[in-house]
Write a structure and sequence with these properties.
Elements: H1 11-28, H2 32-36, E1 39-48, E2 55-59, H3 60-75, E3 78-82, E4 87-89, E5 92-100, E6 104-115, E7 118-131, H4 157-167, E8 176-179, H5 183-194, E9 199-202, H6 210-213, H7 245-258, E10 263-264, E11 267-275, E12 280-287, E13 290-294, E14 298-301, E15 323-326, E16 340-344, H8 348-359, E17 363-368, E18 373-376, H9 377-385, H10 391-395, H11 400-408, H12 412-429, H13 431-439, H14 452-459, E19 464-467, H15 470-475, E20 480-483, E21 486-489, E22 493-496, E23 501-503, E24 506-509, H16 517-523, H17 526-532, E25 565-567, H18 572-591
Parallel strand pairs: 1-7, 8-9, 8-14, 9-10, 14-25, 15-24, 16-17, 16-24, 17-20, 18-19
Antiparallel strand pairs: 1-2, 3-5, 4-5, 5-6, 6-7, 11-12, 12-13, 21-22, 22-23
Bound molecules: flavin-adenine dinucleotide.
Flavin-adenine dinucleotide binds near residues 180, 181, 185, 215 and 268.
Length: about 600
């Protein structure tokens, strides 16, 4: 065990150092039982790729034993070192650490508690951050750019880039094809580029950022800037707290250029089939109207969690004389001043669209079918995100990387326990606001167990509104509120299940988005989608019935039951953080490093 602190460690530092020394000793002796004994009887070890070649959480000593039995020998972990002064609070010692494995370098965060007079791990996060021999060319290892000296074959940077572009897909194949060039696809594209893995990002939109440009015009990000940085290139400190959608779109477009991401716009993937024997995909695409085939070995669907609109099919839609569209196709309010608009739905998009329509003088009715969780943006920023992602956190020395790791270190099994008090605080602070909404008849909820927004996002990816003002319009009746299920349309009205008729010139279906495994079914096959199981959400492994608790976001950023198929996406925070682990898994496969996956015994994943 190496101790990086200069003076002999005292107090918390001493205790953490002793715990790591004991852990390393047990690891060196390959004594799984002794190592598991260093964990508390209730404990959680979350591993991001370092030990498991998976994203996985194991629980309690039995889970630790299981993980170590399968992985200790081949991982050969060593060099555990506490990397900064541990903190002590409420009987928990929290320590950052670094370590090495047989193939790479890792970092992590442990929370130690006392149990039976012994210091034991309560939560333990291990993450791989680089592969030995495949370090990114950064800092002292950055490229030189100019090649001094003389060379008659010299090509400029622009010439090399042009040649690379001309060859890609013709004489060279990408090892990884990323379908979808939104924030998820480009974050991964940037990482793969840095790691030297031949990759190509394709998108059916013409320009990077069009995903955001094409959304309703009033949209600004709901998450604040500190939470939204992309890898390598944080937003400058004059960037607005909430990015307007066209500004973030331009940033994504610049990002693709600056990070030199191989990117084809106006390119649609039509189908993909995996050839087991050859270990590669046959992907049929149409680029600028021209059909072509690519043969990557790895296929990443970064096609968006909010990319497949759920549009209800209702009797009467064909006779309705007004306009109707899904929220994803809503152009904005300009054309609807003085018009009667029915917005079906009561989550984020519904509120944003209702607010903008009202501002433009439309007569707006919101149809609420089931309850919604609402949290005020200011309260969420202060109470929910402030400690990790805020100007104050930055001033206190919190980096984005550290914040992401702190967040990742809270196991999903108990994350709600950390969230509930925060949402109770918000409920109390904004009691008057909630009271007014309830008096207006709005159905509110706080998630299944009172754990609020983030858990709802992880579990379902929907069912909430981060209030930036439009909730008041519902509370004071400026936007009319009705409850029920839309059952049909007439020539000029929306009809609810209780018979209520809502006259309408425009109907907006703010009815959300379908799951990402729908994309796998569309592009590959239903059979492949079924084999993979649900994508997104926390809970049991849905390919088995009833499946064991997985403890992770299903199928995201990790090996799936379809060899060579991966899913990537989520909000900007997730795209940033988890793209690293996905990129490392792909890099290892490209480099031929063995990647035996723990927890997917029925999948060999040799490549
Ligand atoms: C109204 C709204 C507001 C949101 N606000 C926020 C926010 O404030 N903060 C936040 O972090 N997140 C927000 N999100 C959620 C999420 O971050 C965004 O949806 C984001 O765009 C997701 O990025 P992505 O890269 O995963 O997917 P997308 O941006 O949806 O990109 C997927 C891409 O895949 C392409 N594609 C799909 N199929 C194919 C195919 N067959 N061939 C080629 N290309 C294909 C699509 O053209 C699309 O460009 C919001 C979402 C919506 C709808």
């Amino acid at each position: 065990m190496t101790q990086t602190l200069d003076a002999p460690p005292q107090g918390a530092a001493r205790r953490a150092a002793d715990w790591f020394a004991a852990l390393e000793d047990a690891f060196r002796a390959r004594d799984v039982e002794r190592a598991a004994g260093l964990f508390a009887s209730t404990s959680y070890w979350r591993d991001l790729v370092a030990f498991s070649w998976n994203i996985t959480t194991v629980e309690h000593r039995a889970g630790v034993t299981d993980l170590l039995t399968a992985t200790l020998d081949r991982t050969d972990p060593s060099g555990f070192a506490v990397s900064e002064e541990p903190e002590e609070a409420d009987g928990v010692t929290t320590a950052w650490f670094t370590f090495q494995t047989a193939v790479g370098r890792g970092k992590g965060l442990v929370r130690l508690v006392e149990e039976d007079g012994q210091l034991r791990a309560w939560t333990f996060l291990t993450t791989l951050y680089e592969l030995t021999g495949h370090e990114e060319p950064r800092g002292p290892g950055r490229p030189r750019g100019a090649e001094h000296g003389v060379d008659r074959q010299r090509l400029t940077w622009a010439e090399r880039r042009a040649r690379e572009e001309a060859e890609l897909g013709r004489t060279t194949q990408p090892y990884v094809l990323v379908v979808g060039g939104g924030q998820g696809g480009v974050a991964l594209g940037a990482r793969l580029r840095q790691l030297g893995v031949p990759a190509l990002v394709v998108d059916r939109h013409a320009r990077p950022g069009d995903q955001w440009r094409s959304r309703y015009k009033s949209l600004c990000l709901h998450d604040p800037v500190w939470y939204d940085h992309l890898p390598y290139l944080p937003f400058p400190d004059n960037w607005p707290v909430f990015s307007p959608k066209d500004k973030i779109a331009d940033w994504l477009e610049s990002y693709v250029k600056v990070m030199e991401i191989p990117y084809w716009g106006s390119t649609e993937v039509r189908s993909a089939a995996y050839d087991e024997a050859a270990g590669e995909w046959t992907v049929e695409l149409v680029r600028d109207g021209e059909e072509l085939t690519l043969r990557p070995q790895q296929l990443v669907l970064a096609t968006g969690m909010s990319g497949k609109p759920n549009v209800p099919v209702l009797p009467g839609q064909d006779v309705f004389r007004g306009e109707q569209h899904h929220s994803s196709a809503h152009p904005g309010p300009d054309a609807y001043a003085g018009k009667r608009v029915v917005v079906v739905g009561s989550n984020n998009s519904a509120f944003d669209i209702c607010g903008a329509l009202w501002e433009h003088g439309a007569d707006v009715t919101m149809v609420q079918r089931s309850s919604t969780h609402i949290v005020r943006s200011s309260s969420l920023m202060e109470i929910g995100l402030g400690a990790l992602y805020s100007e104050e956190a930055v001033a206190a020395g919190m980096t984005t990387e550290k914040a992401d790791l702190v967040f990742a270190s809270l196991p999903y099994r108990i994350l709600h326990e950390f969230q509930i008090p925060a949402y109770e605080q918000m409920k109390e602070r904004d009691a008057d606001f909630y009271d007014r909404l309830e008096k207006a008849g709005f159905w509110l909820d706080w998630g299944d167990d009172g754990s609020g927004l983030f858990m709802k996002y992880l579990r379902r990816g929907s069912g909430y509104y981060i209030d930036v003002g439009a909730a008041d319009l519902v509370a004071n009746g400026d936007v009319h509120l009705v409850h029920g299920q839309v059952v049909r349309l007439t020539e000029d009205a929306v009809v609810l299940d209780d018979g209520t008729e809502l006259p309408a010139d425009l109907v907006v279906y703010a009815t959300g988005y379908g799951s990402m495994n729908g994309w796998a079914a569309d592009l590959i096959s239903q059979e492949a989608a079924d084999r993979v199981g649900k994508v997104w959400g926390l809970g049991s492994d849905t390919t088995k019935d009833p499946g064991p608790w997985e403890g992770e976001q299903r199928n995201m950023w990790k090996p799936t039951r379809q060899e060579g198929l991966w899913f990537h996406g989520g909000n900007l925070h997730q795209s940033r953080h988890y793209s690293l682990y996905l990129a490392l898994q792909l890099t290892a496969r490209h480099a031929g490093i063995p990647t035996p996956v723990h927890g997917l015994a029925d999948v060999h994943h040799t490549r």
